[in-house]
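Collaborator request, handled under Task 6.
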Amino acid sequence: MRDTAAGLLIGAAGGLAFWLLGIPAPWLAGSMMAAIAAVFAQVRIGMPDWLRAVAFIFLGIQTGTAVSWDTLDRAIHWPVSIAFLCLTVVAVTWAGMAYYIRRHDWDVPTALFASLPGALSLTLLLASSTTADMRRVTIAQCIRLFFLVAALPTVITWLRPPGDHLTMSLAQIGGVWDILLLVVVSAAAGYALEWLKAPAGLMLGPMLASAGLELSGLVAGAAPMSVLIPANVVLGVMIGARFSHFTLAEFRAALVEGFSGFVIALAIAMAGAAVAAWFSNLPFALTLLAFSPGGLDAMTIMAFSLNLDPAYVGAHQMARYIGLALFMPAATAYVLKRMGACGSQAAKVEEG
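Structure tokens returned to the collaborator:
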């Protein structure tokens, strides 16, 4: 409890400081930076599973209640941009692998799992069953997420012209019974999908349930935005706590490699987002956030913070997450087998 309280207080203080400074997405970026500083200052911080679950459920509720019939009308353009997103994911992975193998002489398994964009838990689980260097994979994934959360809001703010946004203006839910219905039904849906082992069930269930309640008219309006601030802080502390497994020296050494990987991934994501924005007639800032190779939770929270359509961003990040969860095991096994075979043949040629 002390570790949890310390993490929440430190994260809230960091978020408040960033908010006072006017930094974009302050509660997420500020809490993450404060948590990382605390970790390397030898302060013990923690986040229990139940609190993480609550944060994911409320984030799913926030995203679902942002869905309206107007959202569904615009969704006709989404399949096109999701198709470009799939191509972008492949390109980001391939480019990251090539960079780590050629520039830093990493082995194929380590480079592959360090380059996969998103689905961190599944990526680490699959990497652990191979010969990949788990320290390098974990650090590379965490460093990329660190730079995304720290830098992406500012990048999007710079790139977005005034008025270039796409969001819904929903009144807040006023009735206590409406809020209670929304929370109970959404939480039940989240735990049901989690029990069924659905990818990102704790977010997907509340997202679908709250969207259904909103579209059916049983609930009108969104949950108070103040609910999103604690979710920001919890997520920021969760990201920061991942660095507790590394020393400060390891963190410093990984910054260059991690930043280079982040720049490569962001450049490809920007190219894919620009093409999708042109084909779908959507704002570039919106497609960039949806295409950014971060986590489902972090990117969706960022959509709210940057006043971008959370339904669009959430749908694309969810598509990326589910796609990786479904196809990553077979795809990574195939790539490792093919590249392993190529490596063996190259070794035989050199020996000959």
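The cover message to the collaborator said: "The mean pLDDT is 82. The first helix runs from residue 2 to 21. Please let us know whether this matches your experimental observations."
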